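Changelog note: in this version the structure field was regenerated for every chain. One regenerated record is shown below for reference.
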Amino acid sequence: METAREIVELLGSAALQMVTGPFYYIAVLFIILQYTRQMRLERQLFAVKLHDWKGLALKALATGLLVGVGISAASVFIGASLSPSAVLWLWAIAAVLMLARIRYLCFAYSAGIVTLLQWAVGFTPLHERADWIGAMATSLARIDAAGLLLLVALLHLAEALLVRLQGDKLSTPLFLEGKRGKLVGGYMLQGFWPVPLLLLAPVSAETATASASSAALPWTSLLGGMLPEGWTFIALPMIIGFTEMTRSMLPAAKARHAAKGLLLYSVCLGGAALAAWWQPALLPVAALASILLHEALVWRSKAMEARREPLYVHDTRGLRILGIVPGTPAETMGLSVGEMLYKVNGVRVSTKEELYSALASNSAFCKLEALTVGGEPKFAQRARYAGEHHQLGVILAPDEQANFYAASGPASLLELLRGRKASNRRGGKATAGGSEERLQA
């Protein structure tokens, strides 16, 4: 009973550290910036609202909290000796890396660099100095690098699960610049989750003056033994997320592909971290695995897209559906992304103008004939009612009349904060509002 009371008190103290520190709020702000940019891009390209940034952000907060509870519970049995200085080192390095590339916010990179720095500084006498350099070298040496890398592996395992379950629901249709300047349709799958972690850690020289307990725990942790010197909880705010682009796959298929890669990464990094805990000489190998295997995930996705033909283009059969606007007749009729419209009210359609004309031929009823992604025929029909959405509600793949396409995303944190433009204009004649009729049917 006494141990349970101490656990509750120390958890409360660690949670207070979380909410009074800046890092969790930095993660939330970053997520809001990303999602508001996504909404701005949707409006510029299609003049419609496909997502609500507030709903996405709230869902990310709730999901991240659940992930944090799960990983924190698992960490109780891992016992990594992480300290407050580990939090500072991770976020400081991540902030520097984000000045070059936003995707380097992933802690796979900062944890790998922390481990490599610890290994390199171990060959120097810096920790013997009495100045701030010596203090930094000492705090770096006290970080449990193997436990840190294992934590990164667990976070990517959670990310793989989230991408598999939510990835396609976090997708945005885009007009993208293809080969030789031709516009093609595509999707950006993007999701971020702030993960608040409360980790059980052995008492070290750094945490000895903080609240801690010397009571014996009723279990043996994987990396921390029986914690003979005592134990405490520390707050470690993290962020996990992914961004994928596809021109050749449905969002659900791309999400499954990304999830498989993340799962493989987490297994490999977890194995490397455990090997480094067993044999510390392997720490630099595990650190390089954290960085290089993550880069391999990026290369894997790009290589697959380069091998495949674009999916979201029109052909002689009809008009390719790139997206479905929520709350429109297209959604209630069961039309899906990737399908091909080839007859509307009995009329073959091969251009957007023919589609508009066929829809206008019957103001009270709509009958569609489509082809599924696999080429199978599909039929849909419904009455059209006064006062409902005036358009069918499909976003079609781009044609020669499309004037806007997605700009390359902000590469660095500074570009994101400056509000880099979300779309480029082709031809320089139309405005975002004036292009609505050509973008959405």
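Spot check on this record: Residues 314-397 form a domain with the Pdz3 Domain fold (CATH 2.30.42.10). The first strand starts at residue 171 and ends at 177.
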